[in-house]
Design brief:
The complex is a heterodimer of chains A (about 375) and B (about 675). Chain A is mainly alpha-helical and about 375 residues long. Chain A has 14 helices and three strands. Chain A has two domains: about 5-60 and about 210-375, no CATH class; about 70-115 and about 125-180. Chain A is globular and about 55 Å long. Chain B is of the alpha+beta class and about 675 residues long. Classes of the chains: A mainly alpha (about 375), B alpha+beta (about 675).
Chain lengths: ~375, ~675
């Protein structure tokens, strides 16, 4: 067992629970009459998640290679199930109810892990020579893009779609020997993004924008949209800005008192900044850096290519999600709902993140002997 | 760091399946990119704090809207001299609606509307407001909800929520638990337990704790407390500190007024009104019928009232205006009286004018020519200056020529030879003109000032009038002097007459009339006692004794004009008054009677005035003496003053009808007052 990885994960989980309680207690007491309502639920998810993680860590990761096609099909199937059995929360149909349990499943979270397992298998199958070609890039991308489009169109969850594509993109970046096409794609995406922003700003008067268009405008000038789309963003910025270097102290946030709605979800990082200041926020970011560094060590010393690819997939997943979350909270990019791994409230998220950690732990078990020798 | 090596049977090595060095390098690059992104975000966090930290900190604090709240105070109570509460403030609540909270979830709206409807809010109107003002967080949906209603509502909701929890009703189907966005804001509402009792004296206080009229206005600052405040401020470390300053309740007034005497007075005035309304024309029994009862040895006002009365809890109810004289452009009474049709069609501009007339305290705000009730004052100044003596005799031939004007007495034939006392008893104008000739202008104008005529008495009520019409002795004409001697051609208010008359009969001490006896704190502790205050000495004790004798003759003498004022079983003194209003020749009169009791040891002065009675021939002082008599017959026994005179059969019959006891214990001589039995019962 890789104890340093385990320690980092447990630290993040515990810290997350403390912050979750601090952030959600006010709203929980108002809405449910129990200030620990969210904490209790998250604690249960976390404990089950840890059990799952332990179990998965004992399953040889090669098992996932064999069931990778099945994993992909299950991911796709669950997304399709949203159409008839979907549950609407806050106007978005992203969840399916699990019969007999007081919880819901978010298929997009399943799809992330499914895509990692499946893409790692495809990339391995392609071989080194194919990976050097454009075909070697496009071929593994196709199933990922299909899932992403489904997530986007069926569950109306663009951010998860982006994360799915980004996971595979990261895996391919590591697997392919060249840089050129990746640089090209990044530049293309930036140019297209810039164009969309330019287009949105210039058609701002036509009133023909959908809610994403408005989000872009709110991103550029959150003060102007403080009463609507920019409300959450500007309130999060107030929280960050009022935190200072060491924050107001744990539990002392004012912004959580109804000003940032559902702060325990996507905006929890802003409350961390308000209560613990720059110091606390950067400490947490360092913990994530440490986590990813640890992943990297495991991948580099993995027994085989498939194992390493699994870890790279997890790295991409967690890194992208942390970066997107903090970027949204600091209004660096337009507002899109991304949770902060291990810390934000959410059963599906913590459940499948811990499963991914379980997979990484099982990869870590199979680290080569010579790697061990090197370390000594 | 320890590493565990686990031998894995499925270990595949080398070839395509190997995670190559170049891949490892690319992973390091990926890690570097992630690290870079983190650094970038870290810098962004730092910049937000550096550039906007101060502004955003302020924004966060300024958003804490609840930080500045006022806490209402309770306006002081008004109690009569026996502790009866005449004005009180009740805790009431405003119902505040928070649209934003209600619209948070669809399931909140209907239960909340049901709840608001049960509180008495118009459902459709509030629904419209909530949907049209989705972001509103403060809207007063209902005012003055009583403490009991609010308590019943809160208990009902709490019980409902508990039951729903117990029955495990699903969240969406809950009724009570889904009531959101309703809260209560406390405040106080002024309440007058006795409706119209002492309405003119008390005045009223509406929203904002601003008194209108009477004590509520005069003692507004005393009755009002200081609002409390809940507020936040920033300490040096930009931390929010919360402080609460409790509201300070207002002080209470304890009056000299006696609610029982006041209600006797108002009952008598109402009886008069009931007897005379619609008599000669449609309208009230008189333009004004008013009465003051005072303690003549302290200036304390025991009762004060003038018709029409109005309910202090609903001062703007137009129904109370019925029968009042119509007003001209200058708010002076003119021909015609308000009918119900007039009330229904009254314009918005007219409403405040008429309501102000309704709220006016006739006893202190209106002035009129006092008429013959001024005669004792003239006689007293003659006695006091030595220009008139008790033994003087005057001849009345029915008129007196002054500077070529022929000024009439009350009878054409004249009263013949009269003593000074008889001049008062007969109410002879000619004798008074003879006297005032001897008194002279200088003495007369000096004494009118001493009596405080035309000046404010200083009574502690709002809107006391001041006439200020006094001409100096140099410019006074002879006819002016002559007519002034019997109370014409100068104006006075009721309170001026009553306060001056008290001094004439109590030995010459002019007490400042007052209504408030003491001011107490909210907890009941006495803060200030208002002692009787002698402002001046008007006449000497011997003059006062003569005036007492003469005024008793008015009631007991066989030619007295005030015989009808005598309350059964008591000896009293007093003087009638009849004065034609301006313009002369309209046959409109103010009649009055001012008297005191008991005759031997004056305790109280009562002054009744009827301004233009609703009857064809208004010049009969009996309208006023009847009010005086009715008041005194009830007030004297109430004050524990026993009868000193035998009661005639007719009087006994009247007392029985009123449920009053005969307290006379002296010799039986039932015939003694038979001659004075009035032939006609006024009502």
């Amino acid at each position: 067992m890789d104890y340093s990885l385990l320690f980092i994960v447990l630290f993040l989980l515990s810290f997350g629970l403390v912050m979750l309680y601090s952030t959600s207690s006010y709203e929980a007491a108002l809405e449910y009459g129990d200030s620990a309502y969210f904490l209790k639920r998250q604690l249960v998810f976390t404990l089950f998640g840890l059990v799952l993680m332990t179990g998965v860590s004992f399953i040889p990761y090669t098992f996932w290679k064999r069931v990778s096609v099945l994993a992909y099909l299950v991911s796709v199937g669950l997304i399709v199930l949203v159409i008839p059995f979907g549950m609407e929360v806050n106007g978005a149909k992203r969840w399916i109810r699990i019969p007999g349990l007081p919880m819901q499943l978010q298929p997009a979270e399943v799809a992330k892990i499914g895509v990692i397992i499946f893409s790692a298998m495809i990339i391995e199958k392609l071989g080194r020579r194919s990976l050097a070609t454009i075909k070697g890039f496009i071929f593994p991308m196709i199933p990922a893009v299909i899932v992403a489009v489904m997530i986007w169109q069926i569950t109306d969850n663009l951010s998860s779609a982006i994360i799915v594509v980004a996971i595979v993109f990261g895996m391919l970046f590591v697997a392919c020997p060249d840089y050129g096409k990746f640089l090209g794609i990044v530049v293309t995406v930036l140019v297209v993004g810039a164009f969309i922003v330019w287009y949105t700003v210039n058609s701002a008067d036509t009133n023909s924008l959908d809610f994403r268009g408005e989000r872009i405008l709110a991103w550029l000038d959150p003060q102007a949209y403080a009463g609507g789309k920019g409300y959450q963003t500007i309130q999060a910025l107030y929280a960050i800005g009022s935190g200072g270097v060491f924050g107001k102290g744990l539990g002392q946030s004012m912004q959580k008192l109804g000003f940032i709605p559902e702060a325990q979800n996507d905006m929890i990082f802003s409350i961390i900044c308000e209560e613990l200041g720059l110091f606390g926020a950067i400490s947490i970011m360092l913990m994530f850096v440490l986590l990813i560094w640890r992943f990297m060590m495991i991948a580099n010393s993995a027994d085989d290519f498939y194992g390493a690819m699994l870890v790279v997939g997890v790295i991409s997943h967690i890194a992208v999600q942390v970066i997107l979350n903090i970027a949204v909270v600091t209004n660096t990019i337009p507002n899109t709902g991304v949770t902060l791994p291990f810390i934000s409230y959410g059963g599906s998220s913590v459940f499948f993140l811990l499963s991914e950690i379980g997979i990484v732990l099982s990869v870590a078990r199979g680290m080569r002997r010579d790697e061990l020798a090197l370390m000594e | 760091m320890s590493r565990q090596r686990v031998v894995n049977g499925k270990n595949t090595r080398g070839g395509l399946k190997r995670f190559t060095i170049s891949m490892q390098n690319k992973l390091v690059v990926l890690f570097a990119i992630v690290l870079l992104a983190f650094v970038g975000l870290g810098v962004r966090l730092f910049l937000i704090n550096r550039d906007n930290g101060q502004t955003y900190s302020m924004q966060v604090l300024s958003q804490q809207a609840y930080e500045n709240q006022t806490i209402p105070f309770k306006r002081g109570r008004i109690l009569d001299c026996k502790g009866t509460v005449l004005a009180d403030s009740q805790l009431v609540y405003n119902v505040i609606v928070d649209s934003k909270q209600i619209l948070q979830k669809d399931v909140y709206l209907e239960p909340t509307l049901d709840a608001l409807e049960s509180l008495g809010v118009n459902r459709n109107r509030i629904k419209e407001y909530i949907t049209n003002h989705a972001s509103s967080q403060y809207y007063i949906a209902l005012k003055n909800l009583s403490y009991q209603d609010r308590k019943a509502y809160l208990e009902k909701v709490a019980a409902g929520i508990a039951k729903e929890k117990e029955d495990k009703v699903p969240a969406a189907q809950r009724v009570y638990d889904n009531i959101k966005g309703i809260w209560f804001e406390s405040g106080y509402q002024r309440f007058y337990p006795h409706g119209d009792l002492a309405c003119d004296v008390l005045g009223f206080s509406g929203s904002g704790n601003v008194g209108t009229g009477g004590l509520e206005e005069y003692y507004n600052d005393t009755l009002n407390g200081v609002v409390g405040r809940k507020y936040g401020y920033l300490d040096e470390g930009l931390n929010m500190e919360q402080t609460m300053i409790e509201a300070k309740d207002g002080n209470n007034l304890v009056l000299t007024l006696d609610a029982n005497i006041q209600s006797i007075v108002q009952k008598s005035l109402n009886q008069f009104n009931a007897a005379f309304q619609n008599q000669y024309r449609e309208g009230l029994g008189a333009n004004n019928a008013a009465c003051i009862v005072m303690d003549c040895n302290s200036g304390e006002v025991l009762a004060m009232a003038g018709t029409p009365f109005f309910d202090l809890n609903h001062p703007s109810d137009l129904a109370a205006l019925w029968g009042m004289p119509k007003l001209d452009q200058n708010d002076e009474p003119q021909d015609g009286y308000l009918t119900y049709t007039d009330l229904l069609t009254m314009t918005e501009e007219d409403k405040p004018r008429y309501l102000n007339a309704l709220w006016r305290n006739f006893c202190i705000s209106d002035y009129y020519e006092p008429g013959s009730t001024a005669k004792p004052f003239t006689v007293a100044m003659g006695l006091d200056t030595g220009t008139v003596s008790d033994s003087d005799e005057y001849y009345c031939g029915g008129y007196k020529m002054i500077d070529g004007f022929k000024i009439q007495c009350h009878t054409r034939e004249g009263d013949g030879w009269l003593t000074t006392g008889e001049a008062v008893e007969y109410s002879c104008n000619v004798a008074l003109m003879e006297m005032v000739e001897k008194i002279g202008k200088e003495n007369f104008t000096k004494f009118q000032n001493v009596y405080n005529f035309g000046l404010k008495t200083g009574i502690d009520l709002a809107d006391e009038a001041r006439t200020d019409q006094f001409v100096s002795d140099a410019t006074m004409t002879n006819s002016m002097l002559a007519t002034n001697s019997f109370g014409q051609n100068f104006d006075a208010t009721m309170i001026q007459m009553a306060a001056g008359f008290c001094s004439l009969i109590n030995g010459g001490n002019y007490y400042e009339p007052h209504v408030v006896k003491k001011i107490t704190s909210p907890s009941g502790m006495t803060l200030k006692t208002i002692e009787p205050r002698v402002l001046k000495k008007t006449v000497s004790e011997s003059t006062s004794a003569h005036i007492r004798d003469y005024t008793v003759m008015v009631v007991e003498g066989h030619n007295g004009t005030g015989i009808t004022a005598r309350p059964a079983g008591y000896r009293i003194g007093g003087k009638t008054g009849t004065a034609e209003t301006l313009p002369r020749g309209n046959d409109e009169y103010v009649v009055s009677f001012i008297g005191y009791a008991p005759a031997e040891d004056p305790q109280i002065v009562c002054y009744a005035v009827v301004d233009r009675a609703n009857i064809e021939e208004q010049d009969n002082p009996m309208y006023a003496t009847a009010i005086f008599k009715n008041v005194m017959e009830e007030v004297l026994p109430y004050m524990g003053i026993y009868m000193t005179e035998p009661v005639t059969d007719k009087e006994r019959e009247r007392l029985d009808k009123k449920g009053l006891e005969v307290t006379y214990t002296g010799d039986e001589s039932p015939d003694k007052w038979d001659w004075a039995d009035d032939d006609e019962d006024m009502y």
